[in-house]
Amino acid sequence: MSYRPNVENVTKAGSNDKEGLYEFIVKLADGTECRVFYHRFPEWRLTNISRLQKTPCPVCRKDFICKCMDSFAGDIGRQVEDGQWFDKALAE
Question: Does the pTM exceed 0.85?
Answer without folding.
Answer: yes
